[in-house]
């Protein structure tokens, strides 16, 4: 593959088709056999491992090294990179990665960042693409739960930590659901990071300096953009088409 497309199919850029049923498919990049309910109009299928591989390591290394305390500013820097597609499961890791990086930059415990971010990377890898529509649980909201679980050291047998990680996911999921569909990995990531900032403030008495009035830079890449119905839509674009 000489070029990695940022929108739609990573192989050819064609629009993706989603189905409710599953059928046998072969990853166009690694040849892995699987079953999926998504292919592009030209028949290409890219597995989640190949979709996320170049982005995942970029996210991890960037967040480990970052000195930024604003998780939304970190997220925007990452999203501008060609390795982060418009939509995709890489956002399920991007959300907890920027939150963990910012959290430990704020608390001054930077020595914890690498271990915590690598743990989040492993956990986020189990959240597949299309989780929002097919499982009714947006991966960006799950990413907030991953952040809180890693940050608090939660396990399935924890008490307070278990409650906090599930509460964080639930509150974030409600916020994302109320914003309306269809999926937009950028909008949902912005909302998830904002909600995580509120959660940490309320539950941990720690202030993450989350950017205010962020405006989306990716609307032209999203054919399903809600435009002025999305509060991240740039005000100067209101009334314009496309």
List the helices and strands and how they pair.
Elements: E1 16-26, E2 33-40, H1 48-65, H2 71-79, H3 90-107, H4 113-124, H5 131-134, H6 139-152, H7 160-179, H8 185-204
Antiparallel strand pairs: 1-2
Helix pairs in contact: 1-3, 1-4, 2-3, 2-8, 3-4, 3-6, 3-8, 4-6, 6-7, 6-8, 7-8
Structural class: mainly alpha
How many DSSP H or I helices? 8
As laid out across the biggest beta sheet, the strand order is 1-2
**β content, as a range?**
5-15%
Shape: globular
How many domains make up the 3D coordinates?
2
Mean pLDDT: 92
- Our Rg estimate from Cα atoms comes to 18 Å
Major beta-sheet overview: 2 strands, antiparallel
The ordered string of helix (H) and strand (E) elements is EEHHHHHHHH
Binned, the helix content reads 40-55%
Q: Which runs of at least 5 residues are low in confidence (pLDDT < 50)? A: none
How widely separated are the two ends? 29 Å
The strand count comes to 2
